[in-house]
Specification:
This protein has 304 residues and is an alpha/beta fold. It has helices spanning 17-21, 62-77, 89-94, 128-131, 133-141, 156-172, 174-177, 191-202, 248-260, 288-298, and strands spanning 83-84, 102-106, 114-118, 145-150, 185-189, 217-221, 235-240, 265-270. It has a single domain (64-298), classed as Alpha/Beta hydrolase fold, catalytic domain (Rossmann fold). It is built from 10 helices and 8 strands. Strand 7 (235-240), helix 9 and strand 8 form a beta-alpha-beta unit. Helix 6 (156-172) packs across helix 8 (191-202). The longest helix is centred in the middle third of the chain and has 17 residues, at 156-172. The radius of gyration is 18 Å and the shape is globular.
Length: 304
C-alpha cells in the first residue's frame, strides 16, 4: 500500500522528504514540519540525509527524527490533534507569511505544565525535525505537555511576535489543550534561544499581545545572545566547547552576569561537541535534557 493511502504507515530513514509532506497523518500541515517555506528542492532527499536541510545544525540523527515523526503519526491514528494554528484565518489573510506558522503538540499528563520549544536555524529556516520534535517528545515522556513552534522565517522580530502569539494561544485555550497556565517553560536553541530569551526578558506585550506571565524557567541552548534584565526567570543553559557559531565564552559570561544579578542559573559546557547538537545523542551532551527538566521542576511554584 502506498504511503499516500496508508494513514498509519511508519516512516523509515529510507523514505524521502516528500513522504513526510505527503503522509496522510500530516495532511494540511506537512510542509510546516520541514525547515523552509518551500521545501520542494529537498523532496527527493532521503531522510537519512536530512542534515542537508539544516546546515547550521550538527549531530543530526535520522533515527531520532523518524522516531519522533512516527510518534506523531501514532497520535493522529489515536484521534488526537497534533497541530494547532495560533493565528486566525483573518490574520493569515492580512499577512500571508503567517500561513507558515503553527504549534505541534506533544501531550503529557492532562493538567500538567507546558513547555514551548523554539528550534533554531538562523532565522533562515526552522530546524524542528532535529531540535524541535525529538526534544518535545522527551519532555512529554516525563509527563509534561510540550509544543514546538513553527514561526515565520525572516528575522528575530517576526519570530518573537509569533512566540508571543503562541503563548497567548496556549493561555487562552488552556482548557481545550488540558494544560495549566502556571509553571510553563520556554526552550530554545540558537536562533530559537534568542526568541526564548527575549520573551523571558521582556514578555509578550512588547510583541503585540497582552501581557502574560513570564515562564517559570528558560532553557537556552547554544546561542550567543547576551541581553537580559533582573526580571529574567531562572535560566538553564548548555553549549558545546567546539561551537563555531555561538561562542561558549560569551554564553557563559551572560550566565555569570545573571548569577551576579541574583538570578538562579545553571550552565553546562560539553567537550568535543559543536553547534546545534539537539538531544546530543552519542555525544558528551547526551542527557542534558534530563538536567534541564529537573531545573525547571525545581522552579515550579507547586506540584500539580
Amino acid at each position: 500500500m502506498s504511503m499516500e493511502n496508508n494513514s498509519n504507515a511508519h516512516l523509515t530513514v529510507d523514505n524521502f522528504i516528500r513522504d513526510i509532506v505527503n503522509h496522510p497523518a500530516f495532511n494540511g500541515f506537512g510542509e510546516r514540519l520541514l525547515s523552509r517555506d518551500d521545501n520542494s528542492t529537498y523532496y527527493n532527499t532521503i531522510i537519512s540525509n536530512a542534515a542537508s536541510l539544516m546546515p547550521y545544525h550538527e549531530n543530526v540523527v535520522p533515527d531520532v527524527i523518524v522516531n519522533a515523526l512516527n510518534y506523531m503519526i501514532d497520535e493522529v491514528q489515536k484521534g488526537k490533534n497534533i497541530f494547532y494554528d495560533f493565528y486566525t484565518e483573518q490574520q493569515k489573510r492580512a499577512d500571508t507569511a503567517k500561513e507558515n506558522t503553527g504549534l505541534f503538540f506533544f501531550r503529557g499528563k492532562p493538567g500538567a505544565p507546558f513547555a514551548i520549544v523554539c528550534p533554531g536555524g538562523g532565522f533562515a529556516y526552522v530546524g524542528s525535525l532535529h531540535e524541535g520534535f525529538p526534544l518535545a517528545l522527551e519532555i512529554s515522556k516525563k509527563g509534561y505537555n510540550a509544543f514546538v513552534i513553527r514561526y515565520r522565517i525572516g528575522g528575530e522580530r517576526f519570530a518573537c511576535e509569533d512566540l508571543a502569539a503562541a503563548i497567548a494561544y496556549v493561555f487562552t485555550n488552556s482548557w481545550k489543550l488540558k494544560v495549566i497556565k502556571g509553571n510553563y517553560s520556554l526552550w530554545g536553541g540558537s536562533a530559537g534561544g534568542r526568541m526564548a530569551a527575549r520573551l523571558s526578558s521582556y514578555g509578550t506585550a512588547l510583541y503585540g499581545e497582552k501581557e502574560y506571565p513570564k515562564p517559570a524557567a528558560a532553557i537556552i541552548f547554544y546561542t550567543g545572545h547576551t541581553d537580559f534584565n533582573i526580571n529574567n526567570p531562572p535560566t538553564f543553559s548548555v553549549i558545546g566547547e567546539r561551537d563555531n557559531i555561538a561562542n561558549p565564552v560569551i554564553m557563559e559570561q551572560r550566565i555569570e552576569a545573571m548569577k551576579a544579578a541574583g538570578i538562579d542559573v545553571e550552565f553546562h559546557r560539553y567537550p568535543n561537541v559543536g553547534h546545534g547538537f539537539g538531544l546530543g545523542v552519542g555525544t558528551t551532551a547526551e542527557g542534558w535534557l534530563n538536567n534541564a527538566v529537573r531545573f525547571w521542576e525545581k522552579h515550579m511554584e507547586s506540584l500539580f
